[in-house]
Design brief:
Helix content is 50%, strand content 0%. The chain has 2 helices and no strands. It has helices at 7-24, 36-47. The longest helix is centred in the first third of the chain and has 18 residues, at 7-24.
């Protein structure tokens, strides 16, 4: 979307939030609920894939 957040920007935001979440709750079970775009970005980050590979995941 024009003027919207890029996937690289989403990746920075997601990485920061998840690092804080996991750091402060390492002894707890955590459920993260989001929309498909953020889930795809998180999968790329967790698997060490280039962010441009996010479309290889089918998230429903």
């Amino acid at each position: 979307m024009p003027g919207g957040e890029s996937f690289d920007d989403v990746a920075l935001r997601v990485r920061s939030v998840c690092e804080d979440l996991f750091k402060n709750n390492s002894d707890k079970n955590i459920a993260i609920v989001s929309h498909g775009g953020v889930i795809r970005v998180q999968l790329c980050l967790l698997l060490g894939l280039d962010i441009n590979k996010l479309w290889m995941f089918g998230v429903t």
